[in-house]
Write a structure and sequence with these properties.
about 525 residues, 9-stranded mixed beta sheet, 21 helices, elongated
């Protein structure tokens, strides 16, 4: 966890960016990302220096070459002066000149790092407006212990939260507790190959990496699994270069050395190289509506003929998964009940030809204030031979935050999310669920608990409950409609009806009483 002091520093820097004329939060994040990358380069160079000194051998790889650069108005500077550990001690005006005129041009030509980060930095632009702001940002980042993965990861996540709170860019950020729920339910394994074809800031990939560190603590002690974790496990695609830079840095700061995060318009090119390449897909793809057939990969149109991006992404996931691979993806509710031929065919494919595991309906306010669209999470396994038996449904009423535009937490921090700290800290023998009142504010721990029982006790649960199983035959009979309310039964309270004779007798007595009252009134007059 980062301290309140660091948070207030970040808030102050963010406000300074805004008052300095940079109103796009993505640009703020991008500039901070560049500086974090520069600090990483200096750390790598220092490691090489220490290794060389300790072994009494020349440096194998110099991040910063020997000699001077030939860039900038002031002539060449020694490459050593471009290092973070050097320019951070300079006066603001001098630092500003070095970073703007020498460091960033050097960053654009860098190839020696041989990583996705270096690749994404090739068009780096320096847009921090003032020396004073640069000095503030450098001071803040220099005080973050970069060897502490949790601290630097939490700091970056807090800054990414600023993107969401800034308004129009919130669509890039899926709520972290929803991501965590999907990761917990799919339970990534150390040998998985994980892909997010619309990765944005790499939130799903980051959460999967953190889950593996938490649940498989010996993973990084095995040389083969460690190599797989750092270089082969994580794959993310996006067609926004700013997102690629931010996503790459997010992975680095969460302890993944070289993930495969690259430029790709996932719907607009063939996927022969990636066909059946991954064992787990985690995604919240964009639902932009429609796109031209001409720009759409023919291999996807062969699965489902449509212009709807939400359907094409589902077709893409089926194409990317290995047989036996599983997926957890967020879809708009229209996918569940849409009546077009493409909608029905895709649902039929999931139920009849693959194994549809679950439909988790989310409350309408989960993505507020950026979108009010109702969504659900689909869980399925690619089999190419069917296998759907019972589909597990869960109707989430509350996710721990208010469902209005403010999205304020309804419980203390240790009781939020799918695996609250308050429950995890109890250990074996402790309370395994939130109280009934707490559950009405946060259903996610219950989702996780019932999911584990989907092949057991959940099969017996009545369809009037918050979760239940629906047989494949019922779903097929409903035209493969996956709306939870199509299968949920409503409890009707029993009402006792009186006999008609009894009611008529009471009405007759009432009329007699009225007539008697009127006669008495006339007598008084």
């Amino acid at each position: 966890m980062i301290t309140g002091a660091i948070k207030s520093q970040v808030d102050q820097i963010w406000n300074t960016f805004w008052s300095g004329g940079i109103s796009n939060p993505l640009e703020v994040m991008e500039q901070i990302t560049y500086l974090l990358f520069l600090r990483r380069l200096d750390d790598l160079h220092t490691l090489e220096e220490n290794k060389s000194s300790r072994l009494k051998v020349p440096m194998e790889r110099r991040v910063f070459p020997e000699g001077k650069d030939d860039i900038g108005k002031s002539g060449g500077l020694p490459y050593e002066d471009l290092r973070w550990s050097r320019f951070k001690h300079q006066a603001p005006a001098e630092m500003y000149a070095v970073v703007g005129e020498h460091v960033f041009p050097f960053l654009r030509t860098l190839g020696g790092d041989d990583s996705t980060y270096a690749h994404h930095m090739k068009d780096a632009r320096f847009t921090i407006p003032t020396p004073a702001l640069l000095a503030k940002v450098v001071d803040l980042l220099d005080n973050v212990p970069m060897e502490d993965r949790d601290t630097k990861g939490d700091l970056y996540e807090y800054m990414l939260g600023k993107i969401a709170s800034a308004g129009q860019n919130g669509q890039f950020r899926t709520p972290r507790h929803i991501i965590r729920l999907m990761v917990e339910m799919t339970a990534p394994q150390p040998t998985d190959l994980i892909c997010d074809p619309a990765c944005g800031t790499a939130g799903f990939l980051m959460a999967a990496g953190e889950y593996l560190r938490e649940h498989h603590p010996n993973l990084l002690l095995d040389a083969k699994l460690r190599e797989h974790f750092h270089h082969h496990m994580f794959h993310g695609f996006d067609f926004d270069n700013t997102m690629l830079r931010i996503g790459s840095m997010n992975m680095l700061l969460h302890g993944v050395e070289n993930p495969d995060i690259r430029y790709r318009d996932s719907l607009a090119q063939d996927h022969a190289d990636d066909e059946e390449a991954y064992t787990l897909v985690l995604a919240n793809p964009p639902f932009a509506g429609s796109l031209d057939y001409e720009n759409t990969a023919k291999d996807l149109l062969s699965i489902v003929k449509t212009k709807k991006t939400e359907l094409l992404f589902l077709a893409l996931f089926l194409r990317l998964l290995k047989p036996g691979g599983r997926a957890a993806v967020i879809v708009p509710d229209g996918v569940l009940f849409g009546s077009s031929k493409a909608h029905k065919e895709l649902r039929r494919l999931l139920v009849e030809e693959q194994k549809l595991d679950a439909v988790v309906s989310l409350p309408g306010g989960v993505f507020k204030p950026y979108a009010g669209v109702s969504t659900a999470i689909l869980f399925f396994t690619k089999t190419n031979s069917g296998g759907t038996d019972q589909v597990w449904f869960y109707d989430v009423d509350a996710d721990g935050w208010s469902l209005d535009d403010k999205r304020t937490p309804l419980l203390s921090e240790d009781k939020l999310g799918p695996a609250p700290l308050a429950l995890r800290s109890l250990g074996e023998g402790g309370r395994t669920a939130l109280s009934e009142e707490e559950h009405t504010k946060n259903n996610l721990p219950d989702v996780l608990a019932r999911w584990a029982q989907r092949d057991g006790a959940e099969r017996e649960r009545a369809r009037t409950a918050q979760s239940f199983c629906g047989p494949k035959a019922d779903i097929a009979a409903q035209g493969y409609d996956l709306s939870l309310n199509r299968y949920k039964e409503v409890v009707h309270e029993a009402v006792e009806h009186r006999a008609p004779k009894e009611i008529l007798a009471e009405l007759a007595k009432l009329e007699e009483d009225i007539q008697r009252g009127m006669r008495e009134l006339e007598g008084m007059l």
